[in-house]
């Protein structure tokens, strides 16, 4: 069996080698010709699997029986086109949700430090309460922050849960985090969900973070607001027209990263393992490697906190020991300067440095720092006995 995989998928040979010959290619180079003779295709978010690709693959002699994406999002895959051809599809829901929440916390604590603001005194609105948004909500509320959620599909399906109207949430929130999937049409369409009118209505001083999908936000309208007023703080990980993103908007953002919020090694390995398990089921093979089999030990396993730190100073220290978002902001800037924006955007993703999740770090406490235990546990770190 011939298996084509995105070269940015970790442990691909170790996992999918059980199916047959594995050929790894950059995601943007996977086209119909590359799929000649393939029976399985494993991608990430940058490869668009649509009717045009499938038709080109068929002309090249592909015999696809399975397509998997090692990502939460599936808007890059035409599932109807796959179903019409009898091709089984699998994704990896929730695989990198914890990594995205880590990214959000790292970004918000950095903004708080830069603006000398108390994060725990700001009202936070979360748009999209799926795998990522719901976990973010739980972690932030566990930290004692005032949070509200907006998710119309869930509001309809779960009338007992409390969700808020988007326009009202935009007026209430001092921090607005977008984690909605891209839904192009229908009653809950999310393309330009945050449109020019809603961007104009945001209160001066609002922090706006988008780690969902770039097309959910009107980038031109946001660029205009930032250029005219400069009165918002912005964290942008996803963009319209990736990788050839709006360089003017990029320059205006406080934190700008190349769609890497969920790029922890742990998240990627979960995605690989979930799709690998689905592929084994599709081809009638016994269960194989688990996530625990694939994940290596982290480079930093334990950190001990002594006295003298305020709660949020302690959290910031622990977060940066594991992941500091400034690395990715600076990395994109460096790659864009060397290679141009589009090539630099892809280059940082393709050569992404090792990153682990907060949960891989055990935090220990001295006798004078025991009061920090609940806060560190709420932030997602491992705390023995808690």
What are the SSEs and their pairings?
Blueprint: E1 2-6, H1 12-16, E2 21-25, E3 40-43, H2 51-59, E4 66-69, H3 79-84, E5 88-90, H4 97-115, E6 124-127, H5 131-142, E7 147-150, H6 152-157, H7 166-172, E8 175-178, H8 196-201, E9 207-210, H9 219-228, E10 233-236, H10 247-252, E11 255-256, H11 265-282, H12 291-294, E12 302-305, H13 311-322, H14 326-339, H15 341-350, E13 362-365, H16 373-379
Parallel strand pairs: 1-2, 1-3, 3-4, 4-5, 6-7, 6-8, 8-9, 9-10, 10-11, 12-13
Structure characterization notes:
- The protein is α/β, with parallel strands linked by helices.
- The protein is about 40% helix and about 15% strand.
- The strands form three sheets. Strands 7-6-8-9-10-11 form a six-stranded parallel sheet, with helices on both faces.
- Helix 4 packs across helix 5, helix 4 crosses helix 13 and helix 14 packs across helix 15.
- The protein is globular, with a radius of gyration of 21 Å.
- The N and C termini lie far apart (about 50 Å).
- The mean pLDDT is about 95.
């Amino acid at each position: 069996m011939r298996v084509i995989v995105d070269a940015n998928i970790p442990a691909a040979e170790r996992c999918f080698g059980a199916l047959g010959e594995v050929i790894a290619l950059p995601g943007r180079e996977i086209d119909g010709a590359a799929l000649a003779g393939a029976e399985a295709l494993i991608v990430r978010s940058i490869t668009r699997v649509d009717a045009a690709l499938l038709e080109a693959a068929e002309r090249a002699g592909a015999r696809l029986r399975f397509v998997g994406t090692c990502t939460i999002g599936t808007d890059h895959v035409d599932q109807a086109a796959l179903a019409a051809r009898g091709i089984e599809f699998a994704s990896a829901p929730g695989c990198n949700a914890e990594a995205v929440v880590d990214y959000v916390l790292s970004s918000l604590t950095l903004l708080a430090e830069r603006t000398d603001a108390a994060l725990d005194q700001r009202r936070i609105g979360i748009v999209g309460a799926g795998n990522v948004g719901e976990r973010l909500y739980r972690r932030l509320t566990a930290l004692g922050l005032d949070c509200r959620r907006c998710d119309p599909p869930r509001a309809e399906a779960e009338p007992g849960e409390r969700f808020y109207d988007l326009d009202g949430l935009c007026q209430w929130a001092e921090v607005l985090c977008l984690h909605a999937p891209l839904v192009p049409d229908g009653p809950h369409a999310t393309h330009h969900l945050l449109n020019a009118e809603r961007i104009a209505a945001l209160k001066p001083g609002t922090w706006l973070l988008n780690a969902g999908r770039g097309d959910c936000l009107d980038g031109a309208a946001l660029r205009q607001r930032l250029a005219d007023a400069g009165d918002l703080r912005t964290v942008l990980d996803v963009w319209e027209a990736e990788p050839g993103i709006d360089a003017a908007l990029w320059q205006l953002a406080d934190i700008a990263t190349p769609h890497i919020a969920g790029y922890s090694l742990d998240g990627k390995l979960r995605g690989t393992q979930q799709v690998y398990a689905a592929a084994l089921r599709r081809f009638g093979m016994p269960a194989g490697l688990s996530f625990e089999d694939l994940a290596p030990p982290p480079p930093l396993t334990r950190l001990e906190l002594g006295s003298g730190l305020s709660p949020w100073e302690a959290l910031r220290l622990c977060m940066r020991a594991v992941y500091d978002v400034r690395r990715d902001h600076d990395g994109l800037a460096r790659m864009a300067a060397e290679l141009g924006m589009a090539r630099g955007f892809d280059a940082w993703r393709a050569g992404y440095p090792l990153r682990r999740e907060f949960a891989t770090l055990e935090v220990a406490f001295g006798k004078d720092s025991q009061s920090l235990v609940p806060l560190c546990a709420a932030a997602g770190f491992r705390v023995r006995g808690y």
